[in-house]
Structures are given as structure tokens and as C-alpha cells.
């Protein structure tokens, strides 16, 4: 399990089971942070659009 704060671009919780090499962990965390940042932009855009539509 991995969680992050996209506004700070940092991992807030990391739990894994089994054997993971350091390079695999680093690659996985980087992929997750990048995806999380992209998703945060999309979510922020949707929220702004909804808020502006509700004011009209």
C-alpha cells in the first residue's frame, strides 16, 4: 500500500510484503508519485469546474 500528498510530491505511507529490491521500490514509488500528481491535477480541475458551474 502506498499513499501520497500530491501537493508536496511526497510519500506519506508505504507498506509492502515480500521481497522487493531497492531499485524496484524506487521505480514503483516514482511511477506512483507521477500518477498521483497527474490524478491530482484532474481532480482539482473537476472540482473547480463543478464549483464554477454551481455559482452560475
What does this protein structure show overall?
- With 56 residues, the protein is α+β, with helices and mostly antiparallel strands.
- It has one domain (2-55).
- The protein has one helix spanning 22-55, and strands at 2-5, 10-14.
- It has a two-stranded antiparallel ribbon.
- A hairpin with a 4-residue loop joins β1 (2-5) and β2 (10-14).
- The mean pLDDT is 91.
Arithmetic mean of pLDDT: 91
Q: Percent of residues in beta strands?
A: 15-25%
Strand arrangement within the widest β-sheet reads 1-2
Instruction: Tell me which oligomeric state these chains represent.
Output: single chain
- Number of helix segments? 1
The total beta strand count reads: 2
**Which series of helices and strands comes N to C?**
EEH
What is the rounded distance between the termini?
40 Å
SS class: alpha+beta
Helix content: 55-70%
Q: Biggest sheet, in brief? A: 2 strands, antiparallel
Which residues form runs of ≥5 with pLDDT under 50?
none
Gyration radius (Cα, Å) is: 15 Å
> Based on CA inertia axes, which overall geometry fits?
elongated
Structural domain tally: 1
Amino acid at each position: 500500500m502506498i499513499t501520497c500528498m500530491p501537493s508536496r510530491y511526497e510519500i506519506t505511507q508505504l507498506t509492502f510484503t515480500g521481497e522487493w529490491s531497492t531499485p524496484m521500490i524506487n521505480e514503483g514509488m516514482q511511477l506512483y508519485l507521477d500518477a498521483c500528481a497527474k490524478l491530482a491535477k484532474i481532480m482539482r480541475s473537476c472540482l473547480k469546474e463543478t464549483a464554477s458551474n454551481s455559482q452560475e
